[in-house]
Predict the structure.
Amino acid sequence: MIWATLTGIPLGLLAAAGGEGGPFDAGEMILHHVANGAAWVEGAWWSPSKAVLIMAVAALLVFLGVRRALAGYDDNGVPRTRWAQMLDPFVEHFYRDVAMAYAGPKWAKRVAPLLLTFFFFILTNNLLGMVPWADFFNLVRGVAVPSGSEPGAFKTFVLDGAATATGNFNVTVALAVVTFFAIIVFGVKKHGLVGHFAHLAPKGVVWPVRWFLLLPIETLSMFVKPFALTMRLAANMTAGHMAILAIISIIFLLNSVLVGIPVVGLALGVSLLEIIVCFVQAYVFALLSGVFIGMAIESHH
Amino acid sequence: MPLTTMALLASAEASGGNPLLKVDPGLALWTLIIFLLLLFVLWRYGWGMMIGKLDARDRAIRGSIEEARAERLEAEKLLVEQKALLDKTRREAAAMLQAAQQDAGTERQRLVDQAREEYERILARGREQIDQETRAAVAEVRKVVADLAVGVAGRLIDRNLDTPGQRELAEKFVGELERKGGAEA
């Protein structure tokens, strides 16, 4: 009886808030949420989009956060404010435990800034992707913009809300390209152009193994490393969002408020897990970049 | 545009434009621009200083440890010195005490000796004075006795006797007395 009553409650308003007219299509909704928004400049390949806006916001937040942390240190380099104390362990870890451990104390000062920028930029993007303001803005649009009327360009990019920029492989490939070139730049700086690329065919093995086995493997590995970074980050960030959205979709697929009770709990659990993933993936990207760069610097020892 | 990109684009369009597979070189380019800009800015105005803080802290801690170690060594050295000084002082004090005790002993002895000497001297002088006085008194007494005796005898015998003969007798008598008194004294 109760079930029949509750399941009968129309969720049309919420469905409309999703921005789609017509029957609910879970797949379409999920793809819409995890994909980048439309280009702001129609038809231009170079056009910024909402992912670009989110990244710019993330970059600004990282910069302000670092400056704020810097202001919280005393003369002896001891962090005094809570904010500085929060960031300090990450900085110290990447500087001492990653950069120094893998690249050596001489190179740590040059490698650590790259790793730290990777970590905090990716982390901020990951976490911004966890804030459901896209859904908030879409809810606003569902109410404010009557269906059928076309919102203006400004409304399109504001009301389109946010997205996880790091869940888009176009973004992660650009970050991995930075790692790819950083490996080469640091390797060449340390060992010279010839010295760096000589490790593609390591000495000390018989020539057929060296030229027909190791050379192809090492060359491939040069590209596989950044490729793995690209896919790991993008897939992880997308997958979590997809899982949350799929779980929430159950409410609309079953068209029932009652189902929402366990589903919201489940979605909350996955969201909490996602926050861990945000940290882990940002850390893994930065750490592996550090390990690869360290390998290029220390490869001849 | 590289071949692979075009192929991916084509496949994306063929699959009804799956937005997850959409190749977007613009987005990659923007990412690169934003990231490199952030990297540059933070390299200049962020991480360098942050690492400087870490190094400063490192130095401060290392310095404090060194300082503490040096201070402990210094303190230990001072302690040894103090202990040696204390021992020396104690020994000196003991020596001084002993010397003082010795001095006091000799001084006391000296004072006692002096006092005894003084006492004996005074005693001797007293005795001598008594002797002298006794002698003077005896002489006086003798003289008085002699005169007295002469006077008494003269009065008794009156002019029956001539004075010189009497006097000789009297003096003989007094001489006997004197001999007697000298033996007594």
In short: The CA atoms of residues 176 and 182 of chain B lie 10 Å apart.
